TrEMBL record:
InterPro entries: HTH_LacI (IPR000843), LacI/GalR-like_sensor (IPR046335), Lambda_DNA-bd_dom_sf (IPR010982), Peripla_BP_I (IPR028082). SUPFAM superfamilies: lambda repressor-like DNA-binding domains, Periplasmic binding protein-like I. This is LacI family transcriptional regulator. GO terms for molecular function: DNA-binding transcription factor activity; transcription cis-regulatory region binding. Residues 2-58 form the HTH lacI-type domain. It comes from Kribbella amoyensis. The lineage of its organism: Bacteria, Bacillati, Actinomycetota, Actinomycetes, Propionibacteriales. Keywords: DNA-binding, Transcription, Transcription regulation.
Length: 333
């Protein structure tokens, strides 16, 4: 049976360092390279910690809950990789929950929190949750960290305002002036992306268009484009709040006989593999979702250990524009 001493010998570290990696503590100082070396040694030796004994000793299960809204959203692919990877490094496991199933009167929250199932909870955009469910989550002593801005508990987030700025500035540099913003809901992320759009338009001396359509799906994008075409001056370009709404915009444009990008340029916020394989391939702002997942897990483990989590906006890497085929310069500006 492999022991922590075996891992320490292979990694060239002390047993205390191995224990610190397993328990997710930060009292023992080590570099990321050292931590990675210990994790690699654990994998090479196929080390399986005695979770039952560990839970009794630490009064922790080693499990965290990640609760997302609409699990089929492809934006979560990189987020999940970051969460699961960071949790594995900490020796923990992840329970994935769908906010769609968490409604007032359901037993999910009670089962989640009342039986010692999890040590902490990550949530994404609690503005989309049932208010009573959010209140119940906050009423329990389990630490909660939001993967978006939150007023009432610790949070870590991505720079959504910057994403809106980048997308809009790119279209402005292509000489577009009639630009509209499509898709999104009432949450903080949408508000920040729309704010970035507004600021760039105003800085260019232009009047921002009103927000068109709400929602995250294909239908929201299609409805938004149809609304945009009813404006006194139809747009030559659109910034789309999310991936699936961008799919809806392309579909509606095709149905209406509008050529993208020759007659309408499209830039989406968030970049997933789907965007590259659409036709035309969609220019998009890539958001640091993988890093968000990792930062969320590490912040939550700090809270679980009784230490503060500094949180805030992830500054590195910044949102990044990925240029493809769905936007082109306006020739008759």
């Amino acid at each position: 049976m492999t022991t922590q001493r075996d891992i320490a010998r292979m990694a060239g570290v002390s047993v205390a360092v191995v224990s610190a990696v397993l328990n997710g503590t930060t009292h023992t100082r080590m570099s990321e390279a050292t931590r990675a070396r210990v994790i690699q040694a654990m994998e090479n030796l196929d080390y399986q910690p005695n979770q039952a004994a560990r839970s009794l000793r630490l009064n922790r299960t080693g499990m965290i809950a990640l609760i997302l809204h609409k699990l089929d959203n492809p934006v979560y692919t990189h987020l999940l990789r970051g969460v699961y990877g960071a949790a594995a490094e900490r020796g923990g496991t992840v329970l994935l929950g769908d906010a769609e199933t968490m409604r007032s009167g359901s037993q999910f929250v009670t089962r989640l929190l009342s039986h010692g199932t999890v040590d902490g909870i990550l949530i994404r955009d609690d503005s989309l949750f049932d208010d009573d469910v959010v209140a119940e989550l906050r009423s329990h002593p389990k630490p909660i960290l939001s993967l978006d801005y939150a007023q009432d508990h610790p949070w870590v987030g991505i720079d959504d305002c910057r994403a809106g700025e980048i997308a809009t500035r790119f279209l402005l540099n292509l000489r577009h002036r009639r630009i509209v913003f499509i898709g999104g809901a009432t949450g903080h992320a949408f508000r920040q992306r729309y704010l970035g759009y507004q600021q760039e338009m105003q800085q260019a001396g232009l009047e921002p268009a009103p927000h068109l359509a709400t929602g995250f799906g294909e239908q929201a994008g299609a409805d938004g484009l149809r609304q945009a075409l009813q404006l006194p001056a139809a747009p030559t370009a659109v910034v789309v709040n999310n991936v699936m709404s961008a799919v809806g915009v392309l579909a509606a444009a095709r149905d209406l006989g509008i050529a993208v990008p020759d007659q309408l340029s499209v830039v989406g916020i968030h970049d997933v593999g789907l965007m590259e394989h659409l036709r035309p391939a969609v220019t998009a702002v890539r958001m640091p979702m993988y890093e968000l997942g990792r930062a969320g897990v590490h912040g939550l483990y700090e809270l679980m250990a009784g230490r503060p989590c500094t949180g805030g906006i992830i500054a590195d890497p910044e949102p990044e524009l990925v240029v493809r085929d769905s936007a082109t310069a306006l020739t008759d500006a």
